[in-house]
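Fig. S4 source data, part A: sequence.
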Amino acid sequence: MITYNTLYLEIRRTLRQAGYPAADLEARELVCFGSGKSRADFYRDAPLYVSPETEQAVRALVDRHLKGEPVAYLIGEWEFYGLELDVNPSVLIPRVDTEVLAAEAIEYVKTQGRCRVLDLCAGSGCVGLAVASGAPECRVLLGEISEGALKVCRQNIRRCGVTGRVSAMQLDAAAAPGKALGEFRCIVCNPPYIPRAEIETLDSSVKDFEPYLALCGGEDGYDFFSSIIRLWRQALAVGGRLYFEVGQGQADTVLRMMRAQGFGDINVIQDTQGIPRVVYGTLLDSI
């Protein structure tokens, strides 16, 4: 028999040798989930021996991960902007890069008092829920076309304890919004933006497990940017802001697309790796 700490160290070494950059975090999460322990329990029980059944369960999870299955899907949750969120293969796994989008939107929304915010292409709802958490006076709508993703959004609204301020609705980002939807002071969006031909070049943990519809942005990757800038400006208040996450090399094109549709004061924000990751602008005039 081995201790929890020894099991963790073995798994961490295996993941490091396999080239996983987040081996420390992933090893801990797999041991915690496989043993049914919280992180606090894990640290407390690190010197204790692991039962053979628990060790077998943990090693089975590690084997699945080594075959490409993401840890977030294996354990059914992931952290984003300090929030613990449910995730499953219906939604993209929240990424640190996307926290830049949330942080920029929160900074703006906090200055707007009681206002409405739309998280379009919401996925797990991570960005909209982070905004609701960081700017408590706002009301947030999570918009998603996928029924599976909407279910995850609703689970996360309950999990975050914001049912009074956040709701979820089926919305198609590629179609014009109905007038009954009303007006928003801020729209945030992390749309599908990977060019179709590039999907097959992605890491197997992404292309084989994460939802294709949430990845593919059409032939050139700009389909959703084009539709949202053109069609969803009518749901944005004059003087309000539209925030996008963009892929590497896309910022300048998205900036030009926004300028052509009546947006001004357009800014580009880099992520922690120095890659232009967020583009946002202010709607200067109505349709």
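Fig. S4 source data, part B ends here. The first helix runs from residue 4 to 17.
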